[in-house]
Design brief:
248 residues, alpha+beta, seven-stranded antiparallel sheet, 2 helices, 20% helix, globular
């Protein structure tokens, strides 16, 4: 039998709003059998946040075979009371042709409202921004998913950032980076950090501004190319229908 929980850590994150601190628990379950696939072992990292009736959990499960990590599942759940909550499931699979395959699914219950923005362009990382907010309780979170590509098809690295809203003016952020290398998928997770909500909003706004600026620049470039092409065709037509050339 494997040891169910190893390296447990508990600590508090004090909030400037004067409310109760965020209780944080971290633990890791090392190399246990998958139970569904023969010869596959899993490593699970879990971080939970709790303050008042608000409960959030951030789970990462790595599946490996022959010491090569071939898939990573991230499960993010938020719960407020019994009827209001959200769950986001992300799956990342190593693939010989596309490097990393990604899928994201979000479910919500109660009075949560959500939005999702997706930017995809070759010159910059693909970015998906998701916001979840409950106007009744004031709970919510923001998340980003960035994909760095080798070319138009191959995803070399994926980075996700989650900012959980606490106290209205502060967030607790978690960052995870998944990279494909010779030894399979490599997962790097930063320890949760406290940030102001204004700072987190500004980070996400800068991402959107960068993408929208790139889109505008491409639109203007396309319009200039079309204008030059149309002008060239117009001048060519005028030369062909010139009365002088008609006499000649």
């Amino acid at each position: 039998m494997f040891k169910a929980i190893e390296d447990p850590k508990k600590y508090l994150i004090e909030l400037n709003c004067g409310g109760p601190p965020v209780q944080v628990k971290e633990f890791i379950t090392r190399k246990y059998p998958d139970g569904e696939e023969q010869g596959v072992f899993c490593v699970k990292r879990s971080t939970t946040f709790c303050v008042g009736k608000r409960f959030c959990v951030f789970n990462i499960i790595e599946k490996c075979k022959d010491d090569v990590v071939y898939s990573v599942n991230i499960d993010v759940r938020e719960q407020f009371g019994e009827s209001t909550g959200t769950q986001t499931r992300m799956s990342f699979v190593r693939n010989n042709r596309y490097d990393v395959l990604c899928s994201v699914r979000t479910l919500s219950s109660g009075s949560y409202e959500s939005f999702r923005t997706n930017y995809s362009m070759p010159s910059l990382p693909d970015i998906e921004i998701t916001g979840l907010f409950c106007p009744t309780t004031g709970c919510g979170s923001f998340s980003t998913l960035e994909k760095k590509k080798r070319d138009a098809n191959q995803v070399e690295r994926v980075k996700t950032t989650h900012a959980f809203l606490f106290g209205g003016d502060e967030t607790v952020s978690v960052k995870v980076k998944i990279t494909n290398d010779r030894k399979g998928l490599r997962v790097e997770m930063e320890r949760p950090v406290k940030q102001t909500t204004d700072y987190s909003n500004r980070v996400f706004e800068k991402m959107e501004e960068k993408m929208e600026r790139e889109i505008r620049n491409n639109v203007l470039s396309t319009l200039r190319n079309v204008s030059h092409s149309f002008l060239g065709k117009t001048q060519e037509t005028e030369v062909q229908t010139s009365p002088v050339l008609g006499v000649l």
